[in-house]
Design brief:
Layout lengths: L15 H21 L3 H17 L6 H8 L3 H41 L6 E3 L8 H4 L20 H13 L10 H12 L8 E5 L5 H9 L4 E6 L2 H14 L3 E5 L12 E7 L7 H14 E12 L7 H7 L1 H5 L5 H6 L2 H7 L7 E7 L6 E8 L3
Parallel strand pairs: 1-4, 2-3, 2-5, 3-4, 5-6
Antiparallel strand pairs: 6-8, 7-8
Bound molecules: S-adenosylmethionine.
């Protein structure tokens, strides 16, 4: 597995054997993604649709029937079962080093949080009840889910997110120049005239990779970041301090921000929209517009699974909703985000949808942005 480009005090230290196991999961997932999954759409024509037609005397029509047809294909079922197993193997391969190394990591996080010259801060809200639609699901099968909090000093959710994300993204890790923040920073240069926002809010920050990347990019910027999970935020805070960047982390719901109106130059969310339901998403978009100042910018970046041209491709892409705990994947895939942004208060003329190349590799990202009128 590619060596991570970024080390810090709370990162779990995997033994050689654990790294080798993680490397095997990376290799399996890469093989499935590059060589097996791309065949699914062709397999629909050769196996799935004929099997459905043989059983029903007609072609599958609706998304539900197309999914039924896919599940009648032995090739698709083999891929689906292996893909699910590979996803579960991610968590086993990172859970072992995390729980083995947890005492050292917890102590490091506690020390960093208690350092007198801290650069950022952590504000947990013990009265906050994590959004049930996220807290109640192990999204992408992460054990305990995003909101897992096993009490004082618990950082496991954040460690699982970072190390699991490292394996999920084929060993590339979430480095200081986190690729998703890098994509937005490049967008600010290329589309927004090189603006340098001085007060930034990152909504749904998880382990704080993007938040730390914004702070590292401009040490004079005041970066705030929110998430629902205390275990996620403790880890994110210690991680940022260990990296020597100042981020102010808050436990807060994206749909009910406690920040003042017009108080940020830039409000971003990274990969949040596909993790929340429609009502929560609309409220989050409204809140993002409320807290950005006149002349300020909002950018919501997410995965590029929208606008696939055929129903078969859309159903194939929707696998995660059914088998990967991604309860809101399909809702995001089909959402009218321009309408949601308009309902949030922007005019259509202020809204731009972007198809953005990743900083590294062939991946692409979706983003929707808008500037609040000055
Ligand atoms: C896929 S992660 C994205 C994390 C990070 N932005 C990144 O790109 O690496 C989604 C995050 O959104 C958080 N989240 C989900 N619902 C939320 C809500 N209602 N308010 C705030 N954060 C939320 C989750 O806890 C999770 O950490």
């Amino acid at each position: 597995m590619k060596v991570r480009d970024l080390q810090h005090a709370v990162l779990p230290r995997s033994s050689a054997e654990e790294q080798s196991r993680q490397g095997a999961v990376v290799a399996l997932r890469r093989f499935l993604n590059r060589h097996v999954r791309p065949r699914n759409v062709a397999v629909f024509d050769t196996e799935a649709a004929p099997a459905f037609a043989a059983a029903h005397g007609r072609q599958p029509q609706s998304p539900t029937e197309i999914q039924q047809a896919f599940l009648m294909s032995p090739s698709y079922r083999l891929w689906s079962a292996t893909n699910r197993a590979a996803q579960e193997m991610i968590w086993v391969s990172v859970g072992e080093p995390i729980y083995r190394d947890l005492d050292r990591m917890t102590e490091a996080a506690r020390d960093l949080a208690a350092t007198p010259g801290k650069l950022g801060s952590l504000a947990l809200d013990p009265t906050y009840d994590p959004s049930p639609e996220v807290a109640g699901v192990d999204i992408h099968l992460q054990p305990g889910g995003y909101a897992m909090d096993r009490g004082d000093n618990d950082i496991v959710a954040g460690a699982l997110y970072e190390l699991g994300g490292n394996v999920f993204s084929f060993g590339q890790g979430i480095g200081r120049g986190d690729s998703k923040a890098g994509v937005v920073l490049r967008l600010l240069d290329e589309h927004f005239g090189g603006v340098r926002p001085k007060r930034i809010l990152d909504i749904g920050c998880s382990a704080g990779a993007a938040s730390a990347a914004y702070a590292a990019n401009d040490p004079e910027a005041e970066v705030h970041a929110i998430d629902i999970g205390a275990g996620m935020l403790r880890y994110a805070h210690a991680r940022a301090e260990s990296l020597g960047v100042g981020v102010h982390f808050h436990q807060m719901d994206a749909s009910a921000l406690t920040f003042e109106d017009d108080s940020f130059d830039l409000v971003v969310s990274h990969n949040l929209m596909h993790e929340i339901g429609a009502e929560k998403r609309r409220a989050m978009l409204r809140e993002a517009r409320r807290v950005v100042r006149p002349g300020g910018i909002v950018i919501h970046q997410d995965i590029a699974i929208r606008g696939l041209p055929t129903l078969v491709q859309q159903v194939e892409r929707d696998w995660d909703t059914h088998f990967n705990g991604e309860a809101h994947w399909n809702t995001y895939q089909n959402a009218d985000l321009v309408a949601d942004m308009t309902a949030a208060g922007f005019t259509e003329a202020e809204i731009v949808e972007h198809d953005l190349p990743a900083i590294h590799g062939a991946n692409r990202w979706y983003a929707i942005s808008a500037t609040k009128p000055a």
